[in-house]
Sequence to fold (225 residues):
Amino acid sequence: MSACDLYVTGTDTGVGKTLVSAALLHALRARGLRAVGMKPVASGCERTAEGWRNEDALALRAASDPRPSYADVNPYPLPAATAPQLAAREADIAIAPAPLLAAHARLAATADRVVVEGVGGWLAPFADGFEQSQLVHALQLEVVLVVGLRLGCLSHARLSARAIAADGCRLVGWIGSGIEPDFDRDGAYAQLLRDALPAPCLGVLPHMQPPDAVAAARTLTWPPP
Fold:
């Protein structure tokens, strides 16, 4: 894997993108790099004394060193826990690329690597007319695919990989995420994925309850940058 910033996408929502993103941050930091996380658009936020806050964005911020401002980690916090397109409409917010590019630039100025977590699966837009691939191209990010290990994941993973390639983006690796405790105990599905996907496996995370990003980082079979 090269030294570009990373974009973490998934085969679907709820497959462990935040756990993987935080684990990547810890793995980078363990190699002596300054690494910060970013969740450009986050729906499902709670109002706090400091403003709207999202649990996933807070997890990425906590895994970052140096610790960035929340506003740069999550430029668009959306209250409603639904698709970003709908959450933005409900909040009467127009999501645009420029604030995301500016926030990423500020993060990149303080770090060796930025790990950017996307929304849902690859083809879930940030907003009407604003695809995730547009941000990946604008920031020249390399894509890591999180595959939620469950029935149907082989098709979802292959479709996602094809869509990423069709959008002209570079898939540099995938990580299996044990979202179901009793699925693929013998590793048969993980091997099918290794054989089928056009990028290397960077690790297979076991089911974790509660999620532990530090422990997850230790399981990544990821070469040093």
Summary: Residues 69 and 121 are 26 Å apart (CA to CA). The two ends are 7 Å apart (CA to CA). The chain has a mean pLDDT of 94.
